[in-house]
Amino acid sequence: MRLVFTLILLLLILVPVSGKTEVYIKLDKKMVAPEDLLRISVNAFSDIPSPIEVLITGPGGGQWLYENESVIVFSGSWDFQIPEDWGDGVYVVKVNLFENGTTKEFFEQFRVIKPKILKVEFPEVPYQGRTLVNVTVETPEERETSLSFKFIGLNFRFTSEEEFKVYDNSTKLKLNLRQRYDETRDIDYALKPGIYAIELILKYRGRIFDSRILTVEVVKPKLSVNISEEVVTGEPIRITISTNRFSDAYDGAYNGIVLTLVGENYKAVKVVELDEGGEANVTMETAGLSEGDYKLYIRDTMLTYKGYSPKALAYLYYDLDPKDPKAKEFHAQDDIVIVKDLRIEKHPQSRSNSIVFFEPTGQEAEEGEFVSYKILLSSADNGLSAYELILYLSNNSVAEFYRIYFPEWAYETYKVVTKDQIRMSALDLKGSVGKDASRVEIATVMLRALSEGVAEMSLKVKRMDSDNGMPINPLTYSAFLVVKPARENKTEENNMTLSENENGDLNGNSSEEIEIPQGNTTEIPEEQNQSSEEFPVHEILKNGEMTEEDRREVSKGKKVPKPKELGVEPKDIIIVAAFGVTFVLVLGRRS
What we know:
By secondary structure, the protein is mainly β. The chain is 12% helix and 47% strand.
């Protein structure tokens, strides 16, 4: 019984009800391109034998798929390749079924679309700029579509490094005008402002279907800056920068603009990053700055530079005029430089903070050379009793710490020198740094230049007390060392010179920290209180009468050499005396 029921159910499904004709058409795609494959499936059922036709028709042409005189049940499928010459339009897969003298038509639509570029939005692009080119396309299948481009000028062309995929029938092409300069590091290869052509290429399934050539203009870069001309100490300097570098923020913001704030004994540099609109709002802090006139140098380096990074160039050559012949040495002849004057006023009810800074703030050295920086405290209103500092070096492959020297007034409690860090502490036991002191020398640090590059030196004040025991909380500023390749034999000469002037051995590998003595301080012997900044006697008198070794020998009780010991014989003295007497007698006779 169960078997009979199953057979009846299958017959009802497979055999249509008497008098009813059914046709099912299925397409695997609704949109295709020329030469695409379209899979077509047709199933037809009729209660009586009837002729059937299956065909494709549309504005670009037609194609018969199947013809038969008489069918009751029909099932067929085809992989149909769209002819290359079929144009855009709506096509149909059509099934005609003739039944009882009447033609019944069944159809399913699909579109043929030839992949093409519809619209290109090319924004203004400045010299050494990057931008996004918006391209709108029409394509039957986005994942099989890609775009690329060629940028063409006189006697050169470069192609895009990637093929850009399509999403929502559009894509953004990344145009990088810095590509040629970045590859060659030759400023003559930088794309100058002028007229160029760009060819856009659309591929579908790896085959070129469309292309467009547009004329584009590379324009001159623009830079405008607004700042407040007067600022109160403690309030930030607010700087607004506008450029025509739109959409340059893809794959990282444009960071070729540097700011240099310059005042008396002060210099600070800041690198600016533009947003997608080619603008930036920047602040520079004034806490701790003295009252006075300052200049702000704004330089767009175009990211063309040689020898120095934009930040290092801004430290060393902040006022370098692009018209100066020296600018070509650093690929800075294409820079834009704007100078703004401002004045920092002291708040009526505030006092300026102290600053610990390096002097100079930047130096150049060749590989193997030694350079020194003073560390100064700008002011100590209530004197200075003790300090504890840590010095840091950002890149010990470029340079390394070598020595630290204390001034005469400072009693050293400890110092530890490593390649990239110095820990130091000292007391003022002589009362040398009194009330209202200014430009107090704290120490002198010596560095050795190792290899080409830029190293930044910074410091941290762990402790600094005034004479009344109150803490001093100064601001701190960094300094830079730019190392250049050494000239031939220069490193050897420097090492020989330094070895002759060695100051004694420092334990550069020690990390032991000695606490500053607390409570009552006992009297310190004079020889212990000698400044570590002073060079030993043998450095000063190396070419004089006495060396350090001679001093040590005398102190041990050895006699000072007599004339004979110095190589003078008595007979030599007699001969010289006789010669003198004879000379006097001769002169007397002549007179």
